[in-house]
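Researcher: Sequence recovery benchmark, item below. Answer with residues only.
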């Protein structure tokens, strides 16, 4: 047989390798398989040192490769990856892949193809697969019933309507949030330690058969009940934004993080959770909350409930407190020396002593009935919102790092902000001010001063030397009505 005839036979055979009768996708010895590879994929293989030449890929180039990483490469195709027959680990995440064929990679144990544009993914033949990360794609289906060794499955942020993990008894971590799942059966996954199934359409979830569970996130679903009494190892529970009317966590003694906000709870007993460091029960219907035994508590958000009292005297580790929109008439935080964030807006507080909270950086106490507020000792304060109270004076001259100040709707007759040189946002509307000096506040990007009486129909504002035109819509300008009279804002240097 002459050479031309040999070539005519060999080339078509090479191009049809994947369909050979013996199901051997490997390249024939001594021949170049470059045409079987996507050109950009081949160049990336060369750039990363997997092959010597993208123009001449040989069987020897791919035969012994067990690990392949082409992530973050802007590749649109991995055509040719099927010839890496001994491949065990494939990382191709953060590319622009619309398809991926791993049916020929039967030795594959780890596949990371997340953050692409895949609409399909067939892993039914990859029986050795132990970890699969395919989140952030456009998958509408995913069949993992043929992957009995799977221990980690991350398929969140897709468009899955169904997910069957009943054939994956070794599964330890399951991340399937942000899909369109209406049901999820994890009763056959006794080894499960982490379950993240939030942002779906689940109406029920049974985790009573998962005693090893340490982390559970099922937020943003439609759950009306949740039984975690059989999960004694649970350390983190996020069940916010559901329709729960009750939640029993008294037996979850290892619990450190609990977020049950945006539900319909009327009671919450956390006295049996001594390890609790973070508690968010915002927007429920709680009338009482006992955290006196949660000595490790650092972050508490119990806002938007119906609490009439809150004892924090023993919570010395507390750094963040949100108790806004309740019915509190008293709040004692004098012993919470580690407090950096405090939001107690819209209660019925007539007093608030924060003088001893030296590390406080954020204070929001608007919408109360405060007649005085001493922040002279809070030198770390960067944010202060005390609007809608009954303050007649406010001294912020010691708050040198203050960036945001909202003291509107009070009864202030004077306001000195000349020492607040890093101030960016100032709202002093609806007070009793006659004038204001902002000449040292050159970082201001937002300034509101309407609703003040001014003097003789003018509210004079002293500005910095380089101030020309009013900076924009976030700066008060023009005229406004005050008690039936017109007051004009006048900027002067």
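Model:
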């Amino acid at each position: 047989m002459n050479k031309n005839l040999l070539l005519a036979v060999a080339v078509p055979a090479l191009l049809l390798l994947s369909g050979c009768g013996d199901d051997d996708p490997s390249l024939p010895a001594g021949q170049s398989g470059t045409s079987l590879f996507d050109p950009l994929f081949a160049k990336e293989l060369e750039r990363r040192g997997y092959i010597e030449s993208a123009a001449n890929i040989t069987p020897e180039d791919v035969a012994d490769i067990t690990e392949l990483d082409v992530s973050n490469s802007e590749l649109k195709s991995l055509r040719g990856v099927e010839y890496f027959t001994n491949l065990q680990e494939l990382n191709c995440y953060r590319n622009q892949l619309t398809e991926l064929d791993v049916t020929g990679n039967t030795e594959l144990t780890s596949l990371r193809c997340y953050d692409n544009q895949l609409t399909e993914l067939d892993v039914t033949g990859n029986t050795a697969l132990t970890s699969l990360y395919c989140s952030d794609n456009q998958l509408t289906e995913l069949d993992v019933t043929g992957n009995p060794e799977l221990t980690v499955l991350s398929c969140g942020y897709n468009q899955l309507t169904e997910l069957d993990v009943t054939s994956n008894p070794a599964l330890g971590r399951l991340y399937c949030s942000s899909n369109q799942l209406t049901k999820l059966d994890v009763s056959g996954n006794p080894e499960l330690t982490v379950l993240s199934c939030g942002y779906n359409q689940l109406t029920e979830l049974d985790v009573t058969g998962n005693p090893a569970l340490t982390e559970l996130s099922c937020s943003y679903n439609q759950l009306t009940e949740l039984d975690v009494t059989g999960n004694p190892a649970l350390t983190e529970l996020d069940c916010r934004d559901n329709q729960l009317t009750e939640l029993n966590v008294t037996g979850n003694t290892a619990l450190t993080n609990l977020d049950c906000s945006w539900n319909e709870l009327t009671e919450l007993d956390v006295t049996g959770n001594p390890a609790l460091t973070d508690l968010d029960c915002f927007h429920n219907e709680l009338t009482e909350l006992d955290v006196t035994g949660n000595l490790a508590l650092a972050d508490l958000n119990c806002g938007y409930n119906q609490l009439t009292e809150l004892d924090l005297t023993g919570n010395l580790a507390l750094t963040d407190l949100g108790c806004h929109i309740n019915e509190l008439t008293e709040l004692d935080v004098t012993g919470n020396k580690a407090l950096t964030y405090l939001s107690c807006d819209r209660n019925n507080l007539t007093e608030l002593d924060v003088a001893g909270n030296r590390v406080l950086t954020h204070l929001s106490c608007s919408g109360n009935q405060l007649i005085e507020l001493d922040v002279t000792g809070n030198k770390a304060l960067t944010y202060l919102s005390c609007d809608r109270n009954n303050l007649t004076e406010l001294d912020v001259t010691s708050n040198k790092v203050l960036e945001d100040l909202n003291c509107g709707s009070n009864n202030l007759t004077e306001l000195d902000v000349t020492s607040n040189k890093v101030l960016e946002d100032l709202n002093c509307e609806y007070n009793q001010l006659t004038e204001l000096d902002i000449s040292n506040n050159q970082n201001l990007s937002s300034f509101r001063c309407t609703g003040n009486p001014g003097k003789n129909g003018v509210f004079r504002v002293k500005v910095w030397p380089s101030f020309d035109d009013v900076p924009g819509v976030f700066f008060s300008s023009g005229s406004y009505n005050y008690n039936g009279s017109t007051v004009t804002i006048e900027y002067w240097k």
